[in-house]
Structure formats: structure tokens, C-alpha cells
């Protein structure tokens, strides 16, 4: 393969290239046959990652125009993800974003870009989480009246809380349980539990990659459904699968479930 990946099957742009996930995506791409990183950018100057030079993020428009990558993979922050989506729309580049913590207005910005190019947003690219989401929908529907509490644990540098995955799981529970429509974030003092609550607990500690547990409890039994990510490579692999799939799609709004459905894995939803 040539240095700029001109003969690769899938040529990527990666934003946040100096971040935990950006580095992981570049390293996973380097290990994958037929995939090359044609553009990598970061807000602050960063040494090359896996031999890929990291450019100033302010040059993104010029770099996308010159390299014409097949897709851009973004793991940054909500404001920058929206700005990169606008750059993708202008350059005609499909965008995969795993960034979490968007406000509603920022989501509108992503959706606006999806009118021009394919945009795939997923709060979690682990296949196990896709399976967890299916299991949670099934369990919550099968156990009417049971209390539901969600606990997520992440490393101490995570910015947003609760996690994007936690919010997706809460959406899943609420989609099958009309009686649960109030998210209660932690409890303190006089706080008796009401029947319409879903308790949400966000823990931040050490270097935990990411854990999500959904507890369903009746009066004489409990069911716990838990996913633990072993390392960030699992997210990077899923994001590369998503980029590969998205590169051939029409403009629109997509989720990781669409990628897995296409591969007959049977997942649905974001
Ligand atoms: N969907 C999924 O499967 C996963 C999603 N995530 C999400 O991905 C995102 C990034 O996580 P992680 O890699 O751990 O975070 P890091 O803090 O390690 O990296 C963030 C990166 O984004 C850049 N960045 C942040 N804000 C801006 C901005 N305003 N403008 C330009 N660049 C910016 C940072 O640049 P700089 O170096 O200059 O600070 C850095 O390169 C988070 O939202 C996280 O929740 C994480 C793991 C899996
Ligand atoms: O910030 C992280 O690290 C992670 N963020 C995602 C989220 O907010 O759900 C996914 C994963 O849990 C790791």
C-alpha cells in the first residue's frame, strides 16, 4: 500500500487523533488489511500516531478537499463533532461519530449534515452492547412492574455523565415500559422510591474502560444485565466496521444497528 493509502480499499479521515479513541482508531486501521488513514487531525499539536502524521484541526476543510477520504471517523467532543459534520457535508464525506454528550441543538446540527452526506452516530460501537440493548428491551418488556436501576462506571477522565450508552439504554427501557418516564440521577436525603422512576448512577474511577449494568427487581427476585468493555479496541473495531459500511450509503441518518443488521447480526436501533 502507498504511503498516503491511495490504493487502499477504505481511506479514512480521523479527528481527535491525539485522544484516547482517535489513537485507538488509527492503530486499529493500521492493523486492518485494505484500510488506510489518509487524514488525521487534532486540536493541539500531537506526534505521529502509528506512523500517521497528525495535522492541525483548523485545516480540516482543506485536508478533506485534497484527500477525498471515503469516510471520517470522529471521537472528540459535541461542539467539535458538529463542526466536523459541517466540514463533511461541505466536502461530501460520510461521517461516523462515536462522540457522546450532545445537547439537542447539537444533535440538530448533526442531522442537518445528514441531509447532504451519510451520518452514523452511535453511543457505543461494542457488539456486546448492541446485544445488551436487545436483552434489556426484552427483559424490561417481560417484567412489567419491576423496578429498573442503571449503573455505569467509567475512567476518571470522562467528561459527560451519564454516559451516552446509559442514555441509549434508558431510551430502550422507556420504549417498552410506558410506566417508567422519570430518570432520577442518584438519591440523597429523604428520597423514597416512586414507581415511575428509573434510577441512574454514574461512577467515575481509575482507568475503567466502560461498564453498564441494568438491574431489574421485583419483590422476590432480581435480574442484572451487565456489559464490560475490556479495552478501547472493541470500540475502534466497531467504528471501522461502521465506516466501511457507511462509505457506500446514501445521505441520511444511521445507527450502529444498521451496520449489524446488514451483517445479519440482528441488532436494531442506534
Ligand atoms: N461510541 C463509542 O463506542 C465510544 C465513544 N466515546 C466517546 O468519544 C469521545 C472521546 O472520548 P476519548 O477519546 O476518551 O476522549 P479524549 O479526551 O481522550 O480525546 C478527545 C479528543 O477530542 C479532541 N477535542 C475535544 N474537544 C475538542 C474541540 N472543542 N475541538 C477540537 N477537538 C476537540 C481532543 O483534542 P485535544 O487533544 O486538543 O484536547 C482529543 O483529541 C467522548 O465523547 C466519549 O464519550 C468513547 C469511547 C467509545
Ligand atoms: O468516554 C468513554 O470512555 C466512553 N464513552 C461512551 C459512552 O459515553 O457511552 C462509550 C463507552 O462506554 C466509553
UniProtKB/TrEMBL annotation:
Binding site for NADP(+): 43
Alphabetical list of PROSITE patterns matching this protein: DAPB
SUPFAM superfamilies xref list: Glyceraldehyde-3-phosphate dehydrogenase-like, C-terminal domain (SSF55347), NAD(P)-binding Rossmann-fold domains (SSF51735)
UniProt enzyme class: oxidoreductase
Active-site residues, record numbering mapped to chain: 154 (proton donor/acceptor), 158 (proton donor)
Binding positions for NAD(+) per the UniProt entry: 16-21, 98-100, 122-125
Keyword terms, alphabetized: Amino-acid biosynthesis, Cytoplasm, Diaminopimelate biosynthesis, Lysine biosynthesis, NAD, NADP, Oxidoreductase
Family per similarity comment: Belongs to the DapB family.
Protein name: 4-hydroxy-tetrahydrodipicolinate reductase
Native organism: Halorubrum lipolyticum DSM 21995
Amino acid at each position: 500500500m502507498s504511503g498516503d493509502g491511495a490504493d487502499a480499499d477504505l481511506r479514512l479521515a480521523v479527528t481527535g487523533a491525539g485522544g484516547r479513541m482517535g489513537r485507538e482508531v488509527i492503530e486499529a486501521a493500521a492493523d486492518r488489511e485494505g484500510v488506510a488513514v489518509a487524514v488525521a487531525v487534532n486540536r493541539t499539536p500531537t506526534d505521529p500516531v502509528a506512523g500517521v502524521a497528525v495535522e492541525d484541526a483548523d485545516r480540516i476543510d482543506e485536508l478533506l478537499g485534497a484527500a477525498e477520504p471515503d469516510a471520517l471517523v470522529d471521537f472528540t467532543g459535541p461542539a467539535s463533532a458538529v463542526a466536523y459534520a459541517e466540514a463533511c457535508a461541505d466536502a461530501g464525506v460520510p461521517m461516523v461519530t462515536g462522540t457522546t454528550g450532545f445537547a439537542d441543538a447539537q444533535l440538530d446540527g448533526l442531522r442537518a449534515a445528514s441531509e447532504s452526506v451519510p451520518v452514523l452516530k452511535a453511543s457505543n460501537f461494542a457488539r456486546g452492547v448492541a446485544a445488551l440493548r436487545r436483552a434489556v428491551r426484552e427483559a424490561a418488556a417481560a417484567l412489567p412492574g419491576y423496578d429498573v436501576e442503571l449503573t455505569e462506571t467509567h475512567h476518571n477522565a470522562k467528561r459527560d455523565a451519564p454516559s451516552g450508552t446509559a442514555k441509549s439504554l434508558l431510551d430502550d427501557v422507556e420504549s417498552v415500559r410506558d410506566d417508567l418516564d422519570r430518570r432520577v440521577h442518584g438519591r440523597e436525603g429523604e428520597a423514597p422510591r416512586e414507581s415511575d422512576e428509573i434510577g441512574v448512577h454514574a461512577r467515575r474511577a481509575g482507568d475503567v474502560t466502560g461498564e453498564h449494568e441494568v438491574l431489574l427487581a421485583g419483590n422476590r427476585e432480581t435480574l442484572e444485565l451487565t456489559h464490560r468493555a475490556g479495552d478501547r479496541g472493541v470500540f475502534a473495531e466497531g467504528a471501522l466496521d461502521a465506516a466501511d459500511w457507511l462509505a457506500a450509503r446514501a445521505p441520511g441518518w444511521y445507527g450502529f444497528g444498521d451496520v449489524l443488521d446488514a451483517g445479519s447480526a440482528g441488532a436494531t436501533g442506534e
